[in-house]
Amino acid sequence: MKRLRALLCGVATAALATAGLAAFTVQQASGATAATTALSNRWYAAAPYLMPHDNNPPDAGAIMDATGLKAFQLAFVLAPNGGGCTPTWDGTSPVSSDTAVGAVVSAIRAKGGDVSVSIGGYGGTKLGQACSDAASTAAAYQQVITKYQLKAIDFDLEEPEYENAAAIAHEIGAAKILQQNNPGLYVSVTTAGTADGTGWFGKQMLNEAKAQGFTPNNFSIMPFDGGFNGAAAQTSALTNFNSLLQSTFGWDAATAYAHQGFSGMNGRSDTGEYFSQADFQTVLDYATSHRMDRFTFWSLNRDRQCTPPDNNGTTSGTCSSVAQSSWDFAKYSVKFAGVTPPTTTPTTTPPTTTPPPGGHCSAAAWSSGAVYTAGSTVSYGSHTWKAKWWTQNETPGTTGEWGAWQDLGAC
Fold it and tell me: Is the Cβ–Cβ distance between 90 and 66 less than 8 Å?
């Protein structure tokens, strides 16, 4: 499945700023959203990722009822697959004509919740790559903000975009413009995590933000898919990232923590790491005790038990591969927002059934331990799949548009 996404914004206080509860009515031709009330920034900081188009999307309203969750991080906005500097969902569905995601947003807001939108993620073509400069990149993102009347936005800057210095300059410049043109907008920037906090490209991104004079609400790292072994390795990375923020921006530790976020992965990661409910609690305790600005995870689509619970030792985009009740991990986001989740046992959605290994196909069956290069073909779930690029331990069909595998159809 490979690394799974994250975020950006800007304030210099050690505590989270809270947005005023200002009601406003969304009026637009596409019928994207209903009337909404802004939440406090703490909710946007706690919003877990939800893919509304892919990975067997769960019912957001059911999650709200079961956990008390109020905010969702909808993913992902990309450039069109065919090229161009206009926003789309997943590279395929133009934001300008969208009604499907708008209906999800309206349903969430009708229950007193709200959404942020995440742009970027792992794979796909990002608008920072497709647009010619920061101004045109910002104009494309402004369409998303206006369409859905957003109070928060997330810049997920990772593979392969963050290796492109010009694209990152466009993204950071666009974030700064959006911050200036949309007062009160909560902005998060998310990037890859390493034992040192973040890697070379993440550090270059921080330097770009410093050079442009841009300060988001937080810089979040994703401490998974990098040899992490539970919460202790994650909190160590967060401590090291805090030192990096201090040295880059000249902040003291408290100010750095106030601009720092965590974006985890629930259950089994792409590389076979495991993060349990106990790990989430440990990182949550670290985040709250250090007054960190953000605590989120990838993803709500995965916040339910597989069948079998360990998913035969594989990673899925639609379940966690660990024993759990539905929406266990969402409750840690609710706690970060300062709310106690309900104690009653909710009605759970049936666990997602993992497709069986390949049927009567001529290509060899996919193997989690094998290394595949671009053009390699395998069989899985009675379909033939072709690798788009180098990949290992990425299950065919579990990550949609950004997955390494192209579905060539049934055998």
Answer: no
d(CA 297, CA 266) in angstroms, rounded, equals 7
pTM, full prediction:
0.78
User: Is the peptide bond preceding residue 76 cis, with omega within 30 degrees of 0?
Assistant: yes
Q: What is the DSSP string of 119-185?
A: EE-SSS--HHHHSSSHHHHHHHHHHHHHHHT-SEEEEE--TTGGG-HHHHHHHHHHHHHHHHHSTT-
Enzyme catalytic residues: 158
Give the C-alpha separation, 336 to 69, whole Å: 10
Q: Which two tokens stand for residue 294?
A: 């953000």
Give the SS3 label for residue 309: coil
Residues contacting residue 170 through CB under 8 Å, at least 6 positions apart: 127, 128, 129, 131, 133, 134, 137
β-strand pairing of 383-387 with 391-392: unpaired
Instruction: Measure the CA–CA gap between 295 and 258, rounded to whole angstroms.
Output: 12
In contact, 79 and 91? CB cutoff 8 Å: yes
φ and ψ at residue 311, rounded to 5 degrees: 55, 30
Q: What distance lies between CA 332 and its chain's CA centroid?
A: 16
Between vectors from CA 66 to CA 65 and to CA 67, what angle results, nearest 5°?
100
CA distance 400 to 390: 17
Tell me the pairing of strands 23-24 and 36-37.
antiparallel
Whether 357 contacts 381, CB under 8 Å: yes
The DSSP annotation for 16-45 comes to PP-----EE----TT-----EEPPPHHHHH
Task: Tell me the pLDDT tens digit for each residue of 148-195.
Answer: 999 999 999 998 899 999 999 999 999 999 999 999 999 999 999 999
